[in-house]
């Protein structure tokens, strides 16, 4: 693997916020308990954070309930809400380097990625949602009979939101942005691996003028704090991003409690299809990016690279060379493309999948082992000759492991690409418009990227078919998750 420069970009930051944010105050857990949060570069503890449980969720939900029922948030003018979101975006921009450093420290992602791509995206998304806040309205409906009929688009109420650790700030944004724009109040539970940046930005929200109780943040584990939130009788809606197995639990808890609607953004095993007429060099680079980006920890990772048999050998040689050139190292160093995996559990899981690949008839082209001797780094790994029924072609690995499969016919690759319980995303590489059109329509996935991958924009909806989820985030579609439609019918006196 290539070497990184020795230059450290940003020194680690001071950690100020480790308690829950409930009703505008940073508070300890009712139990007084804390849990450690780690630096995945070294596995060292960087802070002890308040550990929330059902009692803390109760307090947070009560605060959100009061802020919703008594206002001022849902009753404030939409323009004023929009201005608070805009002020918040400005504050994030001002503190962007500190936030990116904290994100890298707690998550392990390259600082340059956090600072130059994710933080600007966060700012952009909040400005996008600020733009929606005062443009949400219902319709006038031409019903039969002497009636004036209108629809009111109202906020749902208290939203419970549970987010994962792979993009702590962006997942916060995808959830909080639309909920606030529509006038809801929130209790958000961060992932136990990455509790720090959400608390920091929540503080910035207060500075921007968000009233107390509108956004409450509880840190803690899934089966305790997360389950308490999903099953709470006073929570009106739950939104979750994470694994498909946990998504099923969330849906069950939501149904068994008060039948709150749930939006779920879950796992994937996305195909990345390289046709015989593709621009191979570009396809190699994007297939590499599609899989290895963010240490392979993306729900939409292009984790099944299907290559047409006529270009297979050339693609394979170049894909392997690219993986060998990938710069792994301290994510605070300039030029580093890949940092550590998030934690010991994920690290062990990815190594187990690699082992299963090695023990199968697939060919290990490069990588296959831990990188270095401390922290959770894994060598960029490429398998060729992968078959559909292998574990590495079926399960979501969530790590830097590229699986390359060979195909011959378009029909065949459609069938194989769709033969998965997931349907989050797909990539298609071809210069033929007919091939592109055929594939985009045939693939059962929430996003199809043609000759590109991982293009995320505030306005583009994102979500899954099949067991990759329910509902869409971002774009106009995300607003539907946070609005109720009320029909108002009034008889007309003089029709
Ligand atoms: P991963 O395996 O990638 O960590 P999870 O789906 O387990 O993904 O976690 C995503 C989020 O779901 C985290 O915030 C986690 O704490 C939460 N979570 C995990 N288990 C549960 C559960 N039983 N109930 C509610 N939330 C949960």
TrEMBL record:
Keywords, in A-Z order: NAD, Oxidoreductase
Keyword Oxidoreductase: yes
Pfam families reported in the protein's UniProt record: Aldedh
Active-site feature positions: 265
Gene Ontology MF, one: aldehyde dehydrogenase (NAD+) activity
CC per GO annotation: mitochondrial matrix
EC number(s) stated in the UniProt entry for this protein: 1.2.1.3
Sequence ranges assigned to domain Aldehyde dehydrogenase in this UniProt record: 26-488
Subcellular location as annotated: Mitochondrion matrix
Gene3D superfamilies: Aldehyde Dehydrogenase, Chain A, domain 1, Aldehyde Dehydrogenase, Chain A, domain 2
SUPFAM superfamilies named among the record's database cross-references: ALDH-like (SSF53720)
BP GO terms, sorted: carboxylic acid metabolic process
Catalytic activity entry: an aldehyde + NAD(+) + H2O = a carboxylate + NADH + 2 H(+)
Keyword Cell inner membrane: no
CDD domains: ALDH_F2BC
UniProt family annotation: Belongs to the aldehyde dehydrogenase family.
Function: Possesses activity on acetaldehyde and glycolaldehyde in vitro.
Protein name according to UniProt: aldehyde dehydrogenase (NAD(+))
Species assigned in the record: Rosa chinensis (China rose)
């Amino acid at each position: 693997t290539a070497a990184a420069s020795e230059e450290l970009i940003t020194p680690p930051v001071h950690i100020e916020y480790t308690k829950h944010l409930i009703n505008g105050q940073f508070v300890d857990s009712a139990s007084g308990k804390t849990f450690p949060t780690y630096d995945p570069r070294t596995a060292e503890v960087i802070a002890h954070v308040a550990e929330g449980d059902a009692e803390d969720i109760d307090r947070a939900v009560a605060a959100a309930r009061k802020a919703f029922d008594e206002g001022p948030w849902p009753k404030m003018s939409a323009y004023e809400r929009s201005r608070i979101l805009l002020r918040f975006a400005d504050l994030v921009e001002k503190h962007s380097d500190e936030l990116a450093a904290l994100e890298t420290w707690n998550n392990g992602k390259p600082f340059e990625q956090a600072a130059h791509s994710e933080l600007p995206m966060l700012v952009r998304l909040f400005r996008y949602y600020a733009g929606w806040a005062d443009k949400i309205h219902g319709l006038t409906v031409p019903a039969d009979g002497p009636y004036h009929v209108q629809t009111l688009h109202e906020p749902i109420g208290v939203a419970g939101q549970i987010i994962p650790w792979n993009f702590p700030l962006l997942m916060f944004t995808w959830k909080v942005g639309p909920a606030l724009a529509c006038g809801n109040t929130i209790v958000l539970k961060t992932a136990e691996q990455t509790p720090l940046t959400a608390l920091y930005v929540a503080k910035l929200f207060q500075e921007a003028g968000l009233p107390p109780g509108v956004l409450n943040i509880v840190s803690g584990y899934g089966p305790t704090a997360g389950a308490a939130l999903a099953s709470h009788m006073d929570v009106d809606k739950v939104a979750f991003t994470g694994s498909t197995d946990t998504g099923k639990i969330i849906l069950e808890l939501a149904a068994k409690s008060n039948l709150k609607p749930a939006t779920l953004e879950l796992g994937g095993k996305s195909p990345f299809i390289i046709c015989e007429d593709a621009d191979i060099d570009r396809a190699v680079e994007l297939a590499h990016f599609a899989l290895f980006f963010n240490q392979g920890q993306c729900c939409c990772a292009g984790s099944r690279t299907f290559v047409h048999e006529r270009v297979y050998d050339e693609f394979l040689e170049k894909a392997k060379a690219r993986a060998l050139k990938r710069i792994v190292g301290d994510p605070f160093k300039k030029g580093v493309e890949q940092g550590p995996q998030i934690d010991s559990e994920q690290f062990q899981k990815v190594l187990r999948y690699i082992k299963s690949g090695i023990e199968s008839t697939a060919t290990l082209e490069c990588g296959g082992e831990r990188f270095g001797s401390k922290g959770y780094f894994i060598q960029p790994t490429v398998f060729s000759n992968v078959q559909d029924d292998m574990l590495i072609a079926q399960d979501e690995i969530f790590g830097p492991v590229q699986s390359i499969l060979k195909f011959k016919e378009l029909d065949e690759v459609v069938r194989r690409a769709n033969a998965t319980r997931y349907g989050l995303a797909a990539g298609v590489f071809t210069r033929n418009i007919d091939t592109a059109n055929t594939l985009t329509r045939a693939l059962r996935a929430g996003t199809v990227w043609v000759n590109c991958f991982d293009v995320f924009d505030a306005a583009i909806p994102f979500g899954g078919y099949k067991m990759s989820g329910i509902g869409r985030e971002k774009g106009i579609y995300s607003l539907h998750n946070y609005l109720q439609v009320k029909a108002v019918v009034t008889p007309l006196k003089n029709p």
